[in-house]
Specification:
The complex is a heterodimer. By secondary structure, chain A is mostly helical. Chain A has helices spanning 3-35, 42-60, 66-96, 104-126, 151-173, 175-185, 187-192, 197-223, 230-245, 250-270, 276-290; strands at 131-132, 141-143, 148-150, 225-226. The chains are: A mainly alpha, B mainly alpha.
């Protein structure tokens, strides 16, 4: 394999997983943008999404026709997105809303409680071992022996990018999107303008969780295995992506996810897979220390 | 406050009251967590620095003693202070860059450091034995008495360490340093304006907190006789933090109570077998909804 091929292949792999990170990162950054809360249970929502996808695939069975495969993929994605957005709504209602005026750290504890609950609920229903996710799409690969792109990679990238574009449309071209932007700027003023802030927050959780659910299904299909522990590390990486792009900034989360995926892919290719995760955390620490507003975030003046 | 004197006596005599070895093991673990919670309370409760990588200092303490013992043959009582100092220095060194950022960002930076330490320990196989860890670490001895695998001597050792740490913490909080920490926690800008040296005081808290975790790590390594990197994961940092918050931020007795509740509760829930961690999660949510300031916390202490 030539040096150029290795580079190209790692770029393709990196962009694929990076687009999944970006989908999850959007949930972190949207919630943070609106209520300045780091939703530590978000990684578990992603994990639940992957398992919902698994359950749906097992329920429907794998189709052998091309049209059937595409229909199945869409149905599975829709089910996971719907299930996760309901889950997100529930989490917000049970664990965050009652504590909106409480000390910030107590919310951290309820988030951890939610994580424990979800991890164990999934472990009890699906077992503690890695679960195999059957491929629902035919294995197609374009390219030569040393560098290539698979159908799955193309689909992951396409689904992620179209969801991101869709999200931008929702935020910039619908009344709800306007209400979300207003609430992010100044919740009190938004409330005075007649915006139901509680509803906006709920919708934010629902959208963010739906994206994480889709991310979960794509992640599961890509690696064809899922474990109830996977939410933590992937959640943390997605969070790193959100911070890297500038937390609270939506295009930032997308860019951050792709950049993180690229760096991870390249470090796995050139450096060592063992130290791959250190790269993530080093980036996280360095960005926070030297450019806390991230790549695209605006400088925030400290309120006195 | 009769309770103030009765409780330590009760805890001191606990091994005689309840001689069940399984119970003693749970109580010893609770005491270990109490020590860790006291140390983290110093950082999060007194100074208001949200630290999410505290397990790293525990790991550094444990590995310091393990390496001193296995490579140089140092006994436990020499390893204990060295572990504390090493972990304390690590606290200051990792703190140097971290104190430049605040609030949630500090939480993330410390989380990152915690994970880097864990992964580094896992990957530096030459020194740390990698994922398999280190085996055959010597138990403590006093004269010809070897602590062995029985929990009771460790329980008493930890009892002394917890009592001493709690005493130091309570004294510290009322000292000039403690008051300055309180000022930093409530309003850093105002505190700086009246001449509080924020950086030095934060580093002091991180160093002391790290040293306490180092003590705990050394005792842990000596009790287990083995250390592996997966004993020091993010969940451990989170659990210690949960203990501090549950007990009430800034409350010394609260930290001990929180540690006791969160280490004993999962054991009590054992009769629910596989559902226990699920119930434990629910319990955390309910407790915070009912009492967001923690069991022994006051309303206005919030970083």
């Amino acid at each position: 394999m030539s040096a150029g091929d290795l580079f190209l292949q790692q770029v393709i792999n990196g962009l694929t997983i990076g687009s999944v990170y970006a989908l999850i990162a959007l949930g972190y950054t949207m919630v943070y943008g609106i209520i300045q809360l780091i939703n530590f249970a978000h990684g578990e929502v992603f994990m639940v999404g992957a398992y919902l996808g698994l359950a749906a695939i097992l329920g429907f069975g794998v189709s052998h026709s091309a049209a059937g495969s595409v229909a199945l993929l869409l149905v599975v994605l829709a089910l996971a997105a719907g299930g996760c957005s309901f889950l997100g709504l529930m989490i917000e209602r049970v664990a965050y809303r009652p504590l909106r005026r409480a000390p910030k750290l107590s919310v951290l504890i309820t988030a951890i409680g939610v994580s424990f609950f979800l991890q164990n609920a999934v472990m009890l229903s699906f077992g503690p071992l890695d679960r195999y996710i059957p491929p629902i799409l035919p294995v197609v690969r374009w390219g030569n022996g040393s560098v290539g792109v698979t159908l799955m990679q193309v689909i992951i990238f396409a689904v992620s990018v179209s969801l991101m574009v869709g999200l931008q449309l929702v935020i910039y071209a619908t009344p709800m999107g306007r209400a979300m932007r207003a609430t992010a700027q100044d919740p009190l003023a938004a409330r005075l303008m007649g915006i139901s802030v509680d509803k906006v927050i709920a919708v934010t959780f629902a959208i963010g969780s739906a994206l994480a659910g889709v991310g979960g299904v794509l992640f599961g299909l890509y690696y064809s295995t899922i474990n109830f522990h996977d939410g933590y590390l992937t959640g943390l990486k997605a969070f790193t992506a959100a911070v890297l792009g500038g937390i609270g900034n939506i295009p930032g989360a997308m860019v951050g996810g792709l950049v993180l995926g690229l760096l991870e892919g390249l470090s796995a290719g050139y450096f060592s897979t063992q130290w791959k995760n250190v790269v993530t955390f080093l980036i996280l620490v360095l960005v926070l220390l030297f450019r806390p507003r991230g790549l695209l975030g605006e400088r925030v003046a400290e309120r006195v | 406050m009769k309770l103030k004197y009765l409780l330590p006596v009760f805890f001191l005599l606990l091994p005689f009251i309840d001689s069940n070895p399984y119970h003693m093991d749970v109580f010893t673990t609770a005491a270990l967590y109490a020590l860790l919670a006291l140390g983290l309370n110093l950082i999060v409760g007194f100074v208001g620095l949200l630290h999410l990588g505290y397990a790293a200092f525990f790991a550094i303490g444990a590995y310091t003693y393990a390496l001193l013992n296995l490579r140089l043959g140092y006994p436990f009582w020499v390893g204990l202070p060295i572990s504390a100092v090493t972990a304390g220095i690590a606290g200051v060194l990792l703190g140097l860059p971290a104190v430049r950022v605040r609030g949630d960002y500090l939480a993330i930076v410390t989380l990152g450091f915690g994970e880097i330490v864990r992964i580094a320990v896992t990957n530096c196989e030459r020194w740390t034995g990698g994922p398999n860890g280190l085996l055959g670490i010597a138990h403590p001895t006093i004269g010809s008495f070897n602590f062995g695998v029985d929990s009771r001597p460790y329980y008493w050792l930890l009892f002394i360490l917890v009592e001493a740490t709690a005493w130091v913490c309570a004294r510290l909080r009322r000292s000039r340093i403690g008051l300055a920490w309180g000022a930093l926690r409530e309003d850093e800008l105002a505190a700086r304006c009246i001449g509080v040296d924020a950086t030095r005081l934060k580093l002091l808290a991180l160093g002391l907190g790290g040293a306490i975790a180092g003590l705990a790590g050394c005792v842990f390594a000596a009790k287990q006789g083995t250390v592996t990197p997966d004993s020091f994961d993010f969940i451990l940092s989170v659990m210690i933090l949960a203990m501090v918050i549950l007990g009430g931020l800034g409350s010394v007795r609260g930290a001990i109570l929180g540690a006791a509740v969160l280490s004993i509760a999962p054991e009590l829930l054992r009769s629910f077998s596989s559902y226990r961690m699920l119930l434990f999660g629910v319990m955390m949510i309910v407790l915070m909804r009912v009492r967001p300031q923690g069991l022994l916390g006051r309303r206005h202490v919030a970083p």
